[in-house]
Design brief:
The protein is of the alpha+beta class. The chain contains 6 helices and 14 strands. The chain has a 6-stranded mixed beta sheet with strand order 3-4-2-1-14-13. It has a 6-stranded mixed beta sheet with strand order 5-6-7-8-12-9. Helix 1 packs parallel to helix 2 and helix 3 runs parallel beside helix 4. The longest helix is centred in the middle third of the chain and has 22 residues. The relative contact order is 0.17. It comes from Mobilicoccus caccae.
Amino acid sequence: MIGLLALNVASPSPEAARALLEYLWHRDEQVWVLSELTRGRGSRLVLDVCRAAGHRVAATPPDQSGSAGRGVAVVVTDPDLEVNAAAPTGPRLVEVEVAGLRVLGVYGAASDPVRYSDKAQRARKRAWLEDFVATVEQATSRPGPLVVAGDLNIVDPDDVDGLRHVLPEERAAYDRLTEMGLDDAYRAAHHGSRVTWVDHSGVGCRYDHVFTRDANVLAVDIDDSPRLAAHSDHSAIWAHLARD
């Protein structure tokens, strides 16, 4: 079994980074997808501690991470797992092959779904969504098990209430993922959605996802504890996948 956990670390302060590392160190998953890492001290602390522990880390270069240097890293904690083809595939995207399972770690470009985003932010998100869908199309053109995981900044189809400013391109991107044969692991297991991010007004949505193709999902769920403890504004999502 391979366990995967995806968590937006929310550009952490050093104090929040220490709390998030303590949380991660008590998890059993061998693969972490950590999004919204920046050039800041807290983000550097997270990656430095992971590397010092001997974990293998593939991260988007700071100069290719998009707005304000925000990016994503895939961390493999189990030294017995074979790791290949670790490389950034573009801004906010990293692909790593772990024991024959391709993992595409993602941090999607944001636009505020509750309050109207400015024109530049919305244009940036539209451009990123186009590039993201094209990258996933390339990934699905190759055979073998595939996981797309992270804070995609793409809402679940059930997320409607209070979300007045979700871009139509965002909803179309979700549809394209499913059309490419990717299964929304949480939705398939739980037959619906659950909030992983909450706006200061109390409106929320599920921005954090695990999509799979040709992978046997044994279990998948959401852990709200990082968000409820205010170490991040996101919950974590985890999945356990069978190994052939």
